[in-house]
Specification:
The chain is built from 14 helices and 13 strands. The chain is α/β, with parallel strands linked by helices. The protein has a 6-stranded parallel β-sheet, sandwiched between helices. The protein has a 5-stranded parallel β-sheet with strand order 8-7-9-10-13, sandwiched between helices. α3 runs parallel beside α4, α7 packs across α8 and α7 packs parallel to α13. The relative contact order is 0.11.
Length: about 375
Amino acid sequence: MIDQCLLFETLSYLGIDFMTGVPYSFLNDFCLYAESSLKKEKHIVAANEGNAIAIAAGYHVATGKIPLVYMQNSGIGNAMNPLLSLTHQTVYSIPMILLIGWRGDPATSDWEQHKRQGELTPVLLEDMNILYHIIENDAEVVSHFVWAKETAMLTNAPVALIAKKGIFAKPEKNSNYQEDNIQMNREEAMNIILDYFPKDTIYVATTGRATRELHELKSIKDFPSDNDFLNVGAMGHTSSIALGMALGSPNRRIVCFDGDSAAIMHLGAFTTAGKVKPNNFWHIILNNGVHESVGGQQSAGQISNMTAIAKGSGYNTVNNHVTTKQELICAISNLSKLEGPSFLDIHIRQGIRKGIPSLKISHINYKKALMENLTKEQEKRDEE
């Protein structure tokens, strides 16, 4: 693992003093060092990768300096539009350095949702005419950044550094939650909601730890698993998946367990739900205020009034946010009496219970079981 202090001294010497991006576990030590060592106006945790590219472009236009944008390779999809229609040499020709964590690297084993994106990472960069180097080991890091700075200046275009696992990240840290008699953790909040709603409620869980915890809770309670959709990828799109399911199955209650960082990625989805107003859609934010699973960098989740955003978009709301179990139970009860899409922001503490197993499922079989569940329910109603 690279010495971050030495690296940041090198970046400063090269004149690279502005960074923005979306935190990622393969880059967690880099991201944490940036957060702790740079002034707040020099390091911006962006809502999504496209947002980061645009911020970096604006910074270059204002200063003439080369900015750095960091991301997971899955974020290339979000970044593609501004990379091609804003920064490309045939448009505004804006130089920047992209530091991309390589999940799904074909040389390593990984979960299914990362494999295809890993295979396509170099291909996509080539197709976008973005020159890149792959960082294979610690010894190459400084020389690759020197190359990136010189090449970005020479070409007046984005260049990329693809980082393999282990170079910019510390070994996984203990992130078990601390005991707290007042503020809930994510699992406790989900547990209350599972107990409140009928067993045939359809749950859609956001990327990361929420999927693992929902799956584990349903298993412990011996609840059926054919009424869940576990969104293992597509970060930021969980509420849109849930909205589509609510529209397609209007007689079933759909509960979306979203994360604050994930929801912020695509806040425009709030306005779509508020516009179409499905009565059976519940959008619940499990808001710990950080990018927890990738290092704990602060998000805008607990410093923004997400309930006000949802209310302004057309959701039913009853509290700015809830923190305690009693507040949560009361809020759910009050919301259940209202028509239209319901929104609830639950402020929770960070962490995950020790021993929560990894999510090992057949995604295709999981989807098929859910579809059969919904189809049978609809057929039953049609017969009635």
